[in-house]
Amino acid sequence: MKQSTPSQLPTIGILGDGQLAMMMAEAYQKLGGKVAILAASDNAPASQVADLVFVGKLEDAASTEGFFNAVDVVTLENEFNDAQLMIDLSQRFSKSIYPEPAKFSLIEDKLSEKRFFESLDVPMAQYMEITDESQLPDEPGYLKLAKGGYDGIGTYRVSGRQESVPLFEEIKQAGTILFEYAIDFKQELSLIGVSNKEQIVFYPLVGTEQAQGTCLYVTYPCQVNQKIQQQAQDYVSRILEKLDTKGLFAFEFFLTKDDQLLINESAPRPHNSGHITMDLADCSQFENHMRSVAGLPLREPKMLLESMTMLNLLATKDAEFNDDEVLSRIKDTECSATLYRKARSRVKRKMGHVNIWGENQRQRAEEILEQMDI
């Protein structure tokens, strides 16, 4: 395969304008490349760093035409786009989109994704599609919207039919619904793999801890044995080889109390759990994703430190937000903070993250949280 060189890097278009697109753009610009984004507004996080900004929606013919004509190749910031629409646009403008829309369609919603994983014999929690309340089991579990959910939104914990029946009636008009049985797990894990159709590179497994459905901490190392790490890589290799596409994919796992590794969900783009790689590795998740899309060789990431904790800065109120003011409150000298250029906070919104190294990382993370008023 012919590889791009820095002097002839393609202009990459990103569908999305949030912090992931922002950090993807910054990583590619460091390599000498240019980025265009299709954004909801010209003051979104990625709009403030991109080389070219097209304000509009994928469904809008005018903004879409300008965007596609300005780029050489396109990638995704999130999985909320419609696969068939992307297929049509890719063909109309003769531009590659990664992951390819036809392959993205295999995992574009939680139900399609689970059926795809099931076809590859990748273990997961028991689930079912719910089309009528009579199908709901009287068991603890989760009702989930198949498409559009994130950070706990669109996922509802239920103890049995007494809770699930009225909830199903309330949300059934929002789209396809599935029920997933609750499992007894001891740890949540995340693994990132990057593919360019010729090779797959992995970042180490990391542990994740949630606060009301949203990730608060990511930890490396995650205190699992090499067998679990290898098992996770085997499952992800199976999936990525079948997809046979370009780009980064993140996979969330449950490790049960009897050491069964069960896949939960995937994301076809850089992931919150991978922000730790910005300071932990010599090649971040964002750089390797953009390398794959651009046709550059992937880099096998090397860890620069023995341990690290990533803290998500989650907002606790709806208010104006000032990045510089928040940064000024962080006095810890063994950390790196990245803020997301968002003008307003709202409850549970991710406003930035802090990577912490050295001694007593969790204690220091909690101290940083205490200093925040966001």
Number of domains: 3
- Would you tell me the overall average pLDDT? 93
What does the main sheet amount to? 9 strands, antiparallel
CATH uppermost class of the largest domain: Alpha Beta
Using the 3D structure, state the CATH architecture of the largest domain. Answer: 2-Layer Sandwich
Number of helices: 11
Structural class: alpha+beta
Percentage of residues in strands: 25-35%
Low-confidence parts lasting 5 or more residues at pLDDT below 50? 1-5
Quaternary structure annotation: single chain
Helical percentage: 25-40%
Radius of gyration, whole Å: 20 Å
Described by the principal axes of the CA atoms, the overall outline is globular
Number of strands: 20
CATH fold descriptor of the largest domain: D-amino Acid Aminotransferase, Chain A, domain 1
The termini sit apart by: 48 Å
* CATH homologous superfamily grouping of the largest domain: ATP-grasp fold, B domain
How are the SSEs ordered, and which strands pair?
Layout: E1 12-15, H1 19-30, E2 35-39, E3 52-55, H2 61-70, E4 73-76, H3 83-93, E5 96-98, H4 101-104, H5 110-119, E6 127-130, E7 141-145, E8 155-158, H6 161-171, E9 177-181, E10 185-196, E11 200-202, E12 206-211, E13 214-220, H7 226-243, E14 246-256, E15 261-267, H8 277-280, H9 285-294, E16 308-314, E17 319-320, H10 323-328, E18 335-339, E19 344-345, E20 350-356, H11 361-371
Parallel strand pairs: 1-2, 1-4, 2-3, 4-5
Antiparallel strand pairs: 6-9, 7-8, 7-9, 10-11, 10-12, 10-14, 12-13, 13-16, 14-15, 16-20, 17-19, 18-20
